[in-house]
Write a structure and sequence with these properties.
The protein is an all-alpha fold. It has 17 helices and no strands.
């Protein structure tokens, strides 16, 4: 097996592992979304979206990006196989997590009346923000356990923790929504956070860490690099969540809470059901890219490989969405949510640009270029926010889908040229060919569903899905040797 084929197989292995978890999460999300849509309606989904967005802003500011920055430090210490070094880094990390988690909770408690006023236009939800402030600590503690599993390369345990947290989180939240209706939203948010923390702790405790004494000065010294890199990540995260929060506030004040619920539902569909590739990127691809960060040629090769696999996997799925989204929305939610169809059509096209741009953008983190990462995200969020507000103002929910596609197209151009100048990056011919073919098929699917009668559109869509799927399978076979894998498995 060649080194290049081995690299492709590693990408597929991680994608399959976390893609499998994502499939189960999708099923869970389908059940949850259906119950929420029926029990709470668009208004309930809007309230939930506004609460979680507001808390997300506080979290992005107070968590100092430790959930991303610490992965590099833990992975580096793990590569030394020095138990004492590993234990020191994890001890320092855990201290920082407790500090940042408590800090986030305190900030939310203090700002709860103001958050309610800004988010809902009144102070009726002050108590809700007070109660869910505890989730800042719970979420940060959970994130720390998952980061340890990721940094130590315990990917199977990480997948199990994510999966079981989602399953049992569903069992906790649905009865609350059923018996309490909208009043069950806050207990549901807290309950889900507790459950996910429980399972992340259960699996992370399997990692043997020796008790070690770390002085305050050593904590500051060891934690400095985590905090410096994490602070820039935290600022960029704040910008992203803050921009999304402003959009939700604008929609709420312009179109009402129900429109916020529709907006949340639409992007939940497109993000959740194609999220397997992005989950694998964040979990496996980022540490692997970090390992070769000093070699620009290896970075270029790995980015192209990741982008190729991402497009080959996503394309048939996205064309399915373009063709059958009307039925998908009705099955997952209800006929009340059909208004999001136009938004999803455009967002599905935008996902092609997102998959490629994400593959490139991880190089900023892998290289440790915190300032470059921050400025890149700042510029992106400025035009993303502007396009979202303009899109909704002129074309409503469909305008938000258009702005999503345009923004990620601009983002792709941006990260490509920055990476080309700074890190000698470029696309190889194989990737360009794959992208042009699959994106062309998606464009045809988009045109057919918008300009053909339903019967002809479904037929054309089915043909395009078949072509896209067969092409993806053929290209993956060239890179992975799937037939040989199956033969070897049978022989065993």
């Amino acid at each position: 097996m060649t080194e290049q084929q081995s690299s492709y197989r590693q990408i597929m292995k991680a994608t399959s592992l976390f893609g499998g978890v994502q499939v189960f999460n999708i099923i869970i999300q389908i059940v949850r979304s259906k119950f929420i849509a029926v029990l709470l309606g668009p208004s309930g989904m809007g309230i939930m979206g506004l609460l979680t967005s507001a808390i997300g802003i506080i979290g992005s500011l107070t968590n100092f990006g430790l959930g991303i920055s610490a992965v590099k430090d833990i992975a580096a210490s793990n590569s030394t196989e020095n138990v004492q070094r590993i234990s020191t880094i994890i001890t320092v990390f855990n201290r920082l997590v407790w500090f940042t988690g408590l800090f986030g909770t305190l900030v939310t408690l203090i700002l709860s009346p103001w958050l309610s006023q800004l988010t809902f236009g009144n102070r009726d939800y002050t108590a809700a923000f007070i109660w869910i402030s505890i989730t800042l600590l719970l979420t940060q503690l959970c994130s720390s356990q998952l980061v340890i599993l990721q940094g130590m390369r315990k990917l199977k345990d990480l997948a199990k923790a994510n999966f079981l947290g989602s399953v049992f989180g569903l069992f906790v939240t649905l009865p609350l929504y059923y018996f309490m209706g909208i009043n069950g939203i806050v207990p549901g948010i807290i309950g889900a956070a507790c459950v996910t923390l429980l399972f992340s702790w259960f699996y992370s405790r399997k990692i043997s860490i020796i008790p070690i004494s770390v002085s305050p000065s050593q904590t500051i010294t060891e934690g400095k690099s985590m905090l410096q890199m994490g602070f820039m990540i935290s600022l960029s995260g704040f910008l992203s969540i803050g921009a999304a929060y402003i959009v939700r506030i604008f929609i709420s004040h312009t179109g009402g809470v129900e429109q916020v619920g529709l907006y949340n539902a639409g992007f939940a569909i497109i993000n959740t059901y194609v999220g397997l590739v992005f989950t694998a990127m964040a979990t496996d691809y980022y540490p692997r890219l970090s390992a070769v960060a000093l070699e620009n040629n290896l970075c270029k090769q790995m980015i192209n490989q990741q982008a190729e696999v991402a497009i080959l996997i996503l394309s048939p799925i996205l064309i399915v969405f373009l063709t059958f989204i009307n039925w998908v929305v009705i099955i997952l939610y209800s006929k009340q949510f059909i208004a999001v169809n136009g938004m999803i059509y455009w967002a599905a096209l935008g996902m092609f640009f997102k998959a490629v741009s994400w593959s490139i953008a991880f190089i900023f983190l892998a290289k440790g270029s915190g300032k470059l990462f921050f400025w890149n995200e700042l510029i992106t969020n400025i035009y993303l926010l502007g396009l979202n507000l303009l899109g909704y103002h002129f074309w409503g929910l469909t305008g938000l889908g258009i702005s999503f596609a345009v923004s990620y197209f601009l983002y792709l151009i941006q990260v490509y040229f920055v990476s080309k100048i700074k890190f000698e990056f470029g696309f190889n011919p194989d990737f360009i060919k794959i992208f042009v073919i699959q994106f062309s098929l998606a464009i045809l699917g988009f045109l057919s569903i918008n300009y053909f009668d339903h019967a002809y559109a479904y037929f054309a869509g089915a043909v395009l899905i078949t072509i896209s799927g067969l092409y993806s399978m053929n290209e993956l076979e060239k890179r992975l040797g799937l037939i040989n894998i199956i033969r070897n498995y049978r022989n065993k």
